[in-house]
Amino acid sequence: MADSAPLPFRAAVDALRGARLRPEIEIDPTRPPQRLAPHAYALEAAVVEGEEDLADGRLVLLHDPAGHDAWQGTFRLVTLVRAELEPEMAADPLLPEVCWSWLTGALHARGLSAGEASGTVTRAGSHYFGGLSERPPASQIEIRASWTPREGSGGVPDTGAHLAAWCDLLCQVAGLPPAGPGDGSVVSLPQRRGPLSP
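Given the sequence above, the corresponding structure tokens read:
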């Protein structure tokens, strides 16, 4: 991140870097997209249990000091979360609605206000043939979403808390139980079959 970046953006990035997260989360900075906003910062994360990645995702913080009509603000968070599921779970007709409610519920559980939320929930199935025919069928859920975090003092949103909520979502998709009080009403997915394909 360049030293010439605006102070609110630098403060928002510092809050991301200083967030305390669940021990199952492995998180690292990654190259942000270059053309979505004047300033961007990106993280990639995985939920790891032993040697297995249970879910992974990417969170991007965008900032346009001039504001953006579609965002209704100067900051935007954009995410991708994915995990493999048992085929029976992936066949549940309510799965997309449930997964979207996990995102909004994760933000609400941490008392966060977010606007202009939008996104998609996609499920895909793979069947293997020929030289791969011994592999069992695989199903994957993918959540793509974006929302505008409400800005606090100094025009800076609480990005650390938004990151923690996003990690809650990542753990839910991975099938882990809720981490703390107040999250117990959220239903968790059963453990999925195996690691994601690259």
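Confidence is low (pLDDT under 50) at residues 181-198. Try to locate this feature in the token string yourself.
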